């Protein structure tokens, strides 16, 4: 008799954002006359940039002619895109080789799929609150997870504890959901911990494009020693509005080599290459051409202009929190504003209150872990008019 993977019994019935979508859809069906403003899932609203559209169109044209048509591409991504990403890092002071970059359909898939690389015996360390994908994918594999507290006291930036031994550590900076950002000195401590304990840091930098303070790190590889112990995930979803277009990348340094139990050497870069060539057929050529346009200097300037719109929304949300005396983190160097639920409410109750009374959707902190029980997350990814209206409605909760 077939037996299912019973680890699935240990995860929540539905994924956080599916649960929210269901509750919002039910509300909309029951209240078709109400205008709901969505500041929940971090989904972008601005259209793709002109240079990206141009590149996509011209790639579509190439696909229409036998001489330029493309079939299967390299599973790791086309050289033109891998080299474009390498050059983008170089312009930001970080040297990586193009063959350390693996193009994918986004950071969510890769942060989940990377679990294939590690023994189920490994202990996983995650912050709480945390992006649920890191937790759920490890539970699906049956791995032991330990949590480190992210609280207002530590600025939602937990630091290594030398009394705790972890093999795999997930860090996300700028952080989803709290918007907090590690400094270089803090990341140096993490890299030191990982190298000392022979651990791996899985570093999610999907929100690096929101970092505006130049002294804050945008890549873990700006820290010395990180290439020996860190894998970095990034995505064009937030950088260039690719949530629906789908393209991201993972950097697996060639320096990460460990001894197997039989004494042979295992290179994580070779293993990931082996995994991707077996289980993945690459990102569509057309999409990769669009992505390559983002990594040019002109493409990045275009992306920055798009992000500036979201920054303006984040400022507006932060200002509203200040006015209403609500404590929050994020909003600067991040598209997320993470705040303490007003009126001492539990976050799912506050979610219902926001939806029923003012028709504004956010994300309840409880969905990110127990330390989020009394917190709430809003995103700056809607347009300015809707964000402004949502903030006017938010103020009305206090009158
Ligand atoms: C979020 O809202 O946390 C993100 O949009 C989720 C994601 O990027 O998968």
Set out the fold topology.
Elements: H1 16-30, E1 37-38, H2 50-63, H3 79-91, E2 101-104, H4 107-113, E3 123-128, H5 132-141, E4 144-149, E5 168-172, H6 184-197, E6 200-204, E7 230-235, H7 236-240, E8 248-251, E9 257-259, E10 265-267, H8 268-279, H9 285-294, H10 297-324, E11 328-330, E12 336-340, H11 347-358, E13 360-361, E14 363-364, E15 375-379, H12 384-396
Parallel strand pairs: 1-13, 3-4, 3-5, 5-6, 6-7
Antiparallel strand pairs: 2-8, 7-8, 9-10, 11-12, 12-15, 14-15
Bound molecules: D-malate.
Look at the structure and give the mean pLDDT: 97
What ligand species are in this complex? D-malate
> What global shape is seen?
globular
Order of helices and strands: HEHHEHEHEEHEEHEEEHHHEEHEEEH
Low-confidence stretches: none
User: What CATH first level of the largest domain would be assigned?
Assistant: Alpha Beta
- Specify the biggest β-sheet: 7 strands, mixed
CATH topology of the largest domain: Aspartate Aminotransferase, domain 2
Return the CATH architecture of the largest domain: 3-Layer(aba) Sandwich
Distance from N terminus to C terminus (CA atoms, Å) equals 61 Å
Radius of gyration: 21 Å
What's the number of domains? Answer: 2
Give the amount of beta strand, in percent: 15-25%
Question: Helical percent range?
Answer: 25-40%
Fourth-tier CATH superfamily name of the largest domain = Type I PLP-dependent aspartate aminotransferase-like (Major domain)
**What is the strand arrangement across the widest sheet?**
2-8-7-6-5-3-4
Structural class: alpha/beta
Count, helices: 12
Strand count: 15
């Amino acid at each position: 008799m077939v037996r299912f993977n019973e680890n699935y019994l240990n995860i929540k019935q539905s994924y956080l954002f599916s649960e929210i979508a269901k509750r919002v859809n039910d509300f909309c069906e029951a209240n078709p006359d109400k205008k709901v403003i969505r500041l929940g899932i971090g989904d972008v609203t601005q259209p793709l940039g002109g240079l990206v559209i141009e590149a996509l169109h011209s790639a579509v044209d190439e696909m229409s002619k036998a001489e330029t048509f493309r079939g299967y591409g390299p599973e790791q991504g086309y050289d033109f895109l891998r080299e474009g990403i390498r050059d983008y890092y170089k312009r930001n002071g970080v040297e990586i080789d193009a063959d350390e970059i693996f193009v994918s359909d986004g950071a969510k898939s890769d942060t989940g799929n990377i679990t294939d690389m590690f023994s189920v015996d490994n202990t996983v360390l995650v912050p709480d609150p945390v992006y649920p994908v890191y937790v759920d994918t490890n539970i699906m594999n049956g791995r032991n997870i330990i949590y480190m507290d992210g609280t207002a006291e530590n600025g939602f930036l937990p630091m290594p504890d030398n009394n705790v031994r972890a093999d795999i550590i997930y860090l996300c900076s700028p952080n989803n959901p709290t918007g907090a950002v590690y400094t270089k000195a803090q990341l140096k401590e993490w890299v030191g911990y990982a190298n000392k304990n022979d651990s791996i840091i899985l570093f999610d930098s999907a929100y690096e494009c929101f970092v505006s303070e130049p002294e804050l790190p945008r890549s873990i590889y700006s820290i010395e020693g990180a290439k020996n112990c860190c894998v970095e995930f990034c995505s064009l979803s937030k950088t260039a509005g690719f949530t629906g277009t789908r393209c991201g990348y993972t950097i697996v340094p060639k320096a990460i080599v460990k001894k197997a139990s039989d004494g042979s050497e295992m290179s994580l870069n070779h293993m990931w290459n082996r995994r991707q060539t077996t289980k993945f057929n690459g990102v569509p050529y057309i999409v990769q051409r669009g992505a390559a346009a983002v990594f040019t200097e002109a493409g990045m300037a275009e992306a920055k202009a798009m992000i500036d719109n979201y920054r303006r929304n984040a400022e507006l949300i932060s200002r509203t929190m200040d006015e209403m005396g609500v404590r929050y983190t994020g909003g600067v160097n991040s598209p997320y504003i993470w705040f303490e639920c007003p009126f001492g409410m539990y976050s799912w109750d506050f979610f219902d209150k926001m939806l029923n009374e003012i028709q504004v959707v956010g994300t309840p902190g409880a969905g990110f872990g127990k330390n989020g029980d009394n917190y709430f997350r809003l995103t700056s990814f809607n347009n300015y008019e809707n964000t402004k209206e949502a903030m006017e409605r938010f103020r009305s909760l206090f009158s």
